[in-house]
Amino acid sequence: MSTRFNTGSTDLKAGVTAPEGLKDAKKLAALIIEILEEHSAQEILNIDLDGKSSVADYMIVASGRSNRHVNALADYIQKGLKEAGISKMGVEGQEANDWVLIDAGDVILHLFRPEVREYYNIEKIWTSPAGEGHLGADATFKPSE
Questions:
Q1: Taking the domains of the chain in order of start, what are their residue ranges?
Q2: In this structure, are residues 140 and 131 in contact, taking their beta carbons and an 8 Å threshold?
Q3: Which of 70, 65, 51, 50 shows the shortest CA–CA distance to 110?
Q4: Tens of pLDDT along 38-61?
Q5: Using CB atoms within 10 A as the burial measure, which of 41, 58, 122, 143 is most buried?
Q6: Which CATH superfamily, name and number, covers 22-125?
Q7: Residue 85 · residue 22 · CB < 8 Å
Q8: For 94, phi and psi rounded to 5 degrees?
């Protein structure tokens, strides 16, 4: 079951719009971080995706203390972005509140409970240099015979 505007769409980027003042991804990321800090999110990490992904410019990863705190953080972010004029955003995972993803266009936010964040460790994927700890670093190309 999808929560994407109750349309069943799984394309999180579709329909995300932002006002002129927040078209700059850096300003949008700063707004999201400000909201997270104001509401006591833990271990906030802002990852610059320049050269790593064409999906977004920034990925923010943060933790809430519990399911309720993750849910509250997700609500505060959605409310803050709407107040800033972002009319549509993709939201996934708010049913269980273990891992909530909010796609605000050029900024993607992952909110986790601490143990879920530790288990998936997605920040390691996006912050380690290519070749370091990646499967592709050990792989060699062998042409088929």
A1: 22-125
A2: no
A3: 70
A4: 999 999 999 998 877 888 999 999
A5: 41
A6: Beta Polymerase, domain 2 (3.30.460.10)
A7: yes
A8: -80, 0
